[in-house]
UniProtKB/TrEMBL annotation:
Residues 314-323 have a biased composition (Pro residues). This is Cobyrinic acid ac-diamide synthase. It comes from the Bacteria. Residues 53-234 form the AAA domain.
Amino acid sequence: MTDPGQRLRSSLTAEQSASAVEFDSPIAMEALRATQVLHAADQEPFPVPGRIRVITIANQKGGVGKTTSSVNLGVALALYGLRTLVIDLDPQGNTSTALGVPHSVGTPSVYDALVGDSSLAEVVHPTTATPLLSCVPATIDLAGAEIELVSVVAREYRLRRAIETHLQELPPEQRPHYVLIDCPPSLGLLTLNALVAGDEVLIPIQCEYYALEGLGQLLNNIDLVRRHLNPGIAVRTILLTMYDGRTKLADQVAEEVRNHFGSLVLDAVIPRNVRVSEAPGYGQSVVTYDPGSRGSTSYVEAARELAHRGVALPPLPSRPTPGSPVAAPVGSATDVVAFPDTDAATVPVPPSSEENKA
Ligand SMILES: Nc1ncnc2c1ncn2[C@@H]1O[C@H](COP(=O)(O)OP(=O)(O)OP(=O)(O)O)[C@@H](O)[C@H]1O
Ligand SMILES: [Mg+2]
């Protein structure tokens, strides 16, 4: 079987060389424009990041596009030459489904690395999307992990340790450039593990009413993690998803988000596009399912922006270990943003294992 990246490139080249006469309807023209964007991007491989980027994709609100973004950003980064590992940390296992990775009960999965003694190397699976993309799947076992982890030593650091050990054990030429962690829609121990494991957070925000509600809670939690568990974590990227250009509301939400978060928001906006929602049904990302669709080209654009922003990253503070308490960092979780949220309530972050021992 040929490399899917190669297939994508060839199909785009073929479409580009077709005459404009064949593209005489608005929809066909849109498809042509979309494929041209994708093809143009392909002429310029994505740049290698300054350091390995471990990106936690989080938003406790359900259905905002966390999984879709993890999958499609992951596929786009890999198709454009960057080794990428996607970790499915949601018991629903949707990321695993979309990447064509088995995740029935008994499949070696992230649960075995979090709660058991497996290394990540033992639970990483190749994907059908592209050879440079691998995935740690989630099985339904993970649903019990929130409770099982409560009594585990250094429970907040389980994923971080697994990732660090994995990266250290891999030969440099096999180390991923990107590790993307897809979080469940909650602020429990699984998301906490992802925030402690990551160096940065990407928050997908759906361009819908209520989109901003609860964001303050998430940012507060990231701040708590930053102060107590992982001084390196910062919100570096906001991605606007499911944008419906026909509604004023989508524009208003997008504008409000840009006003609050400024340059953290990617220029690329993901439109609401039926091909995006169809793709998982075929065990695929939209980038491989329908490369010329607007959903696909937008994700490729978003991935390209993400990659370009990753070339020059600030150095990371020294990594904490469960045995060494971390000094409170200066600044807030978002570095540049003071988000005026009305949510008074903050979900308490479970105390760290050090605090438990004290
Ligand atoms: N751009 C889009 N256009 C159309 N449908 C989309 C788009 N992005 C996501 N969807 C659909 O919206 C639904 C929710 O998306 P997704 O599963 O990515 O959200 P999520 O934040 O991961 O959800 P959860 O919180 O349950 O994990 C899915 O059915 C997905 O196919
Ligand atoms: Mg999801």
